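Recall the central idea of this unit: under ordinary conditions, the amino acid sequence of a chain determines the structure it adopts. In this exercise we apply that idea directly, starting from the sequence alone.
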Amino acid sequence: MKYVAMIYGNQAKWDSFPAEAWPEAIARQDAFNKKYQGTGELIGAYGLADAALAQLVRRKDGAAMVTDGPYLETKEYLASFYLLDCESLERAQQIAADMPFADVEPVELWPVLHEAAADV
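Accordingly, the structure predicted from this sequence is:
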């Protein structure tokens, strides 16, 4: 079963993280990614840009309408997401709990109920 694990944050939170701590945090994240890519359970890990760079795309009368995003006004936004492929929910929970920032930020875990083939 596939799961999406998501971590939320905001620019103020990232700015408050000490600059000298980033290299170790990135190394821990790289080690996590390699560990679970090695087991085949981590399909992808994606860090997103700041919400100030997000855009909303809609269609009105057949034409694309693009505006600055995000859609909801919120203090926190989706900062990164991971696509997992695990035998069970319990295994997905174990991997989410092993994420480097899970000790300070919760990880949201969602089952993927439908998947469209990418090679269509």
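The chain is about 25% helix and 30% strand.
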